[in-house]
Design brief:
5 helices; alpha/beta; globular; 15% strand; 6 strands; six-stranded parallel sheet; 143 residues
Length: 143
């Protein structure tokens, strides 16, 4: 990242254990500070719960966060309220969670949406037409 200043890194640890989260993000912070502290401005963590958000932000006050909601069962309004309270502007989720009503609420709140994992070009086109900004994929080529 030091040699490629236009590179951003999404950290998707899939970890919920508080001790592991603290260890991982403490290591990221230590290494980035040794290499170049400005790198931290280009690291974007995926968080999975409100508790994880607090743990991560207390270690590194990231500028940007992705709220990946597949590990929670909160209703739409609770999710949006949490995101607005913490100025989180990007949500990632399974396409099945993206009902028209939820997508409209996300748009009304200026929240950018990504869907995962989408490996069909036609599914991607449908999601894009519905207002999804992008997808996580195993092999679709960039558009």
């Amino acid at each position: 990242m030091k040699h490629y200043p236009d590179m951003y890194l999404d950290i998707d640890t899939k970890e919920l254990d508080p001790a592991a989260i603290k260890k991982q993000y403490s290591m990221i912070k230590q290494i980035a500070e040794e290499v170049d502290p400005e790198i931290l401005d280009r690291i974007i963590p995926e968080i999975y719960t409100p508790d994880m958000y607090d743990m991560v932000i207390n270690i590194i006050p990231f500028q940007h966060v992705i709220y990946s909601i597949y590990m929670i069962n909160d209703d739409d309004d609770t999710i949006i309220r949490f995101m607005n309270q913490h100025q989180i502007r990007v949500l990632a989720t399974d396409p099945a969670r993206l009902t028209g009503d939820f997508l409209n609420k996300l748009k009304e709140n200026s929240i950018t949406v990504y869907a995962f994992t989408v490996n069909s070009q036609s599914d991607f086109a449908s999601l894009k037409a519905a207002g999804v900004h992008g997808v996580y994929t195993d092999f679709l080529p960039p558009c």
